[in-house]
Write a structure and sequence with these properties.
about 190 residues; alpha/beta; six-stranded mixed sheet; 7 helices; about 15% strand; globular
Amino acid sequence: MSSLTSTQIMAPYKRGTLMSMRWLRRLVYGRGNGVHSPLAFALTHSLVRPYSRYYDYDLIESYAAPEAMLWYRVLARLRPAEVSYRLMDPRQREQLELMQTLAVSRLHPTGYRLLATDQVREAKDFLREKGRALVLLTEVRKNKESEREFIDYLMDEKHGGVVLDLYDCAIMLNNNHELYYYRTTL
């Protein structure tokens, strides 16, 4: 697969444009529109924008951020063997750890290793290790430098996997030989 160009990567929308409104981005990119990979489509439908509510939603929906709710769905669905947090913001880390305690599953773990981080460099290192890994990359577009680092990672041809660009955050998997990049939104 050829490398991605910068026009294929979701750029931040300028303030005042139609696409800067979250509801319009959901209409265009939500529910897996344009996602051709069966794995990415399944992730979009079960994790990013599920059709049905998860069992503890009423308990946590009122105070959890959208990224924390996404992390809850990832933990409940994938039942990881290992979970790591490398976040700079202590409040965000606290919310994600709370979601982990609520999503504890009695089923056998699937063998996935999960990481929640706000640093692209840490995500790259984690995905290069052996085994199935998933990264929740938060604050993708918090400033120009972090956005540039994310785009450089996507344009690098030396890695493969699935990247779901959720505009404010991203889900990255390392299970393919080629890179598949899809846009969707929370």
